[in-house]
Amino acid sequence: MMRAMARYAVAAVVFWGLAAIPLVADFFGQSYLVSLATRIVIFALAAVTLDFLLGIGGLVSLGHAAFIGIGAYVVAVFSLYGVSELLIVLPAAVIASGLFALATGALALRTRGINFIMITLAFAQMLYFGTTSFSALGGDDGFTLPMRSSVLGIRALDSATGLFWISFTLLAFTYLLFQVLALSSFGRALGALKQNSDRMEALGVDRWQIQLRAYVISGGVCAIAGVLLANLTGFVSPSYIAWQRSGDLIIMSVVGGQGTIIGAIAGAAGFLGLEEYLSQYFEYWRLVLGPIAIVIALLVAKPLRFSRRHG
């Protein structure tokens, strides 16, 4: 009980902290902070979907950025036909990403451990190289969006604060969704499979079906982050799908405390905030960020095990 109350208290602090950034930025006249906060919120959303797989289900996906890329490219494809309505683009992105997760997860989840990791990476790289040859959307050079999405015809996303609050709302919805899933019988079964899949299968639990369901839900919702990221940058590029992006999401989940859901949001805020700070003072800031992330992971993260029982 005390642990649950502490977790909700942390969630309240994290969400209030993010919500306060636009107010602080407006007070001090630092408008760039709103864009930074929006970027944090977007990647926090993606990290939450991965944390459900990684922390709750023990499924380490090194191709999770593929779902961000799908969401972003759906925005680009619709823009070619002059469609910018968010209420059309967003469901289409979720469905497209969910179908990709269903097709790839059905095969990847036939394996476990390191084999699962490598297959998710392989599928993401296939999508990455596919987008580099997609000449209609700029190929390797990327594609500049003609406009941001609208909401019921209103250009709410054109302003930095409007985009932030819509992203913030979608992050809150995503957090609540995965928090409910984690506490449900489905989430508990997924967690039990992480602890001892052989015993659960002996009890009649269909490991493949439960993990595939989690993979599809996670991948589909993650596409929302891609839609928002495309609107934030006004640009879509194959770099959104690169495996390094998936690695960043894993770091966000792990350093924030895997399996807590809210930890992924805190991890995203810390990781991107530190990245922004270091990039202002160090040319090769990733050489500094890497060791810091490793130290934090060693201090707060539980070890990931890839045995036959912990796939």
The largest β sheet comes out as: 2 strands, antiparallel
Percentage of residues in strands: under 5%
Distance between the termini: 29 Å
State the CATH class: Mainly Alpha
Report the mean per-residue pLDDT as an integer.
87
Task: Return the structural class.
Answer: mainly alpha
Q: The CATH topology is what?
A: ABC transporter involved in vitamin B12 uptake, BtuC
Radius of gyration: 19 Å
- Going across the biggest sheet, name each strand in turn: 1-2
Number of DSSP E strands: 2
Query: Which stretches are low in confidence, meaning pLDDT under 50 for 5 or more residues running?
Result: 303-311
H-E string: HHHHHEHHHEHHH
Query: What is the count of structural domains?
Result: 1
Overview of this protein structure:
- With 311 residues, the protein is mostly helical.
- The chain has a single domain, classed as ABC transporter involved in vitamin B12 uptake, BtuC, CATH 1.10.3470.
- It is built from eleven helices and two strands; from the N terminus they run αααααβαααβααα.
- A two-stranded antiparallel ribbon has the order 1-2.
- α10 runs antiparallel to α11.
Summarize the structure.
This protein has 311 residues and is an all-alpha fold. It contains eleven helices and two strands.
Name the descriptors:
two-stranded antiparallel sheet; 11 helices; disordered C terminus; 311 residues; mainly alpha; ABC transporter involved in vitamin B12 uptake, BtuC; 1% strand; 2 strands
Outline the fold blueprint.
Elements: H1 2-28, H2 32-56, H3 65-80, H4 86-108, H5 113-132, E1 143-144, H6 160-183, H7 185-202, H8 207-233, E2 235-236, H9 243-257, H10 262-279, H11 286-300
Antiparallel strand pairs: 1-2
Helix pairs in contact: 1-2, 1-6, 1-10, 2-6, 2-8, 2-9, 2-10, 3-4, 3-8, 4-5, 4-8, 6-7, 6-8, 7-8, 9-10, 9-11, 10-11
